[in-house]
Amino acid sequence: MESYKLLCFSLLGLLLLFALASSFADAKAHHHDFVVQETKVKRLCMTHNRITVNGMLPGPTLEVKNGDTLVVNVINRGRYNVTIHWHGIRQLRSGWADGPEFVTQCPIRPGGSYIYRFTIQGQEGTLWWHAHSSWLRATVYGALIIHPQEGSSYPFIKPRREAPIILGEWWNANPIDVVRQATRTGGTPNVSDAYTINGQPGDLYNCSSQDTVVIPVDSGETNLLRIINAALNQELFFTVANHKLTVVAADASYMKPFTTSVIMLGPGQTTDVLITADQPPARYYIAARAYNSAQGAPFDNTTTTAILEYKSAPCPAKKGLSIPPVFPSLPAYNDTNTVTAFDASLRSRNKVLVPTDIDENLFFTVGLGLLNCPPGARARNCQGPNGTRFAASMNNESFVLPSNFSLLQAYQQGIPGVFTTDFPAAPPVKFDYTGNVSRSLYQPIKGTKLYKLKYGSRVQLVLQGTSIFTAENHPIHIHGYDFYILAQGFGNFNPKTDTSKFNLVDPPLRNTVGVPVKGWAVIRFVADNPGVWLMHCHLDVHLNWGLGMAFLVENGIGELQSLEPPPADLPLC
Ligand code: C2O
């Protein structure tokens, strides 16, 4: 009997080993060269010089499987500093490959290079990569698609075809000049001239029709669209004329399927939808335009389009004779109700284990600010409202990046004077955050403060929007983590009553949450990834103004709970 048991166990062990070995055998390393270079790009009737990866806009789509390793050699042949961030990749223990400049590395200088090496662990779906230096990500971005491991499949019907749909934002001026000008003047940067779908503005813009992106479909088939908002400064509504969208995933996490005619994505967010070609064969517009929640703020109110084209549709006849594609109706630019309904529909596909017994109860305000003109400064450098300079903050701390060391290097090597770890767990002053805020509360303090987390601590974070200067929806992104969104709401978060709104059963797991305009969001995560992780508003202009902070997550016990050593070619300052 005993020997029989032993035999059983060893057989079982062998089987397990075999299963493990075969799953590793499938894991692959993908090697890519990303050449960052000046490229001639024709858009909106002009030829422009723009920084791209490998001469492409958008850049190359990376396709991998869960468990695979990516090895990307980034070679900087451009004239600006650059880094690449793999937005949404957990980077477990591999923080050195995360990419935000001066956070996990110093920038790759012109002429330099750096090899990003990381393994995708337990993630499936649509993510993306983008430059994380100045406003280079306006033209340096692409899709990062993670397929299920060999032998596993989507938890929904297999789509006939798949297509990434990357929403972008285009300036006729060099985006680097646009942000530099704003930094100089202290005012708001010029709004963009177009939005784009897979790099093209589409039919509604001058000189753009010829290059409009066409997505071909066959009648009756169901396809998967992987939609990514890569715009710099604008939340976007997205729709397809006459077609229903079934949402199945967001930010590389599977969602309970639900059907809608319109979705909203903040910059940084992704949404996967199934779309069935169940309409009469014809051409239908795919369209995106702004959701702009900041009252009175200028924004680009143009509409980008691509075309969903049934292959059996009558050929688009010669110019002038063709029937225009069917145009969809899009929500009004300030339609917050549609956004609220969409957010409320997102639920994790399965029941999840939400962290309870919270170790860290954090409350961060999120919003704009105005800095008084520094003494001796000229009026032309203080072109914010009433001679101020625009700023933004979390808990009144306006985040400033270091310039001589990355935060991660400074932490790992114990270099003093680069940052402090006294980021406050709550705002220094309590006030009616979403009410009429007194002007005396407008002025944040600049600094480089981190919040330290013990390895494995369970964190709850209330993100509270403020009405300082102007209230608006802020897409808040955390590097190195996914988090559960327990609830979102309006007004000031009330810990006595609003906890009843928490979804502790199947909350969505994301890497970017929209904090509603004049409202709040509550998120939870377990600090199980050691390193220094930036958390910031993914509206780039807000990050420029300081709307960010960083978590310093300490090592746990042993190698598997510790940050890996830095790669030999890590760029230093
Ligand atoms: Cu998508 Cu800090 O980035």
Q: Can you summarize the main beta sheet?
A: 6 strands, mixed
User: How many H/I helical runs?
Assistant: 5
Q: What is the total domain count?
A: 3
Give the termini separation: 67 Å
CATH architecture of the largest domain: Sandwich
Radius of gyration from the CA trace? 24 Å
Bound molecules: CU-O-CU linkage
CATH class of the largest domain: Mainly Beta
What is the multimeric organization of the chains shown? single chain
CATH superfamily of the largest domain: Cupredoxins -  blue copper proteins
Q: pLDDT below 50 for ≥5 consecutive residues: which ranges?
A: 1-9, 14-22
| CATH topology call of the largest domain | Immunoglobulin-like
Strand order of the largest sheet: 10-9-12-17-14-15
Helix proportion of residues, in percent? 10-25%
Q: How much is the average pLDDT?
A: 95
Q: Give the amount of beta strand, in percent.
A: 35-45%
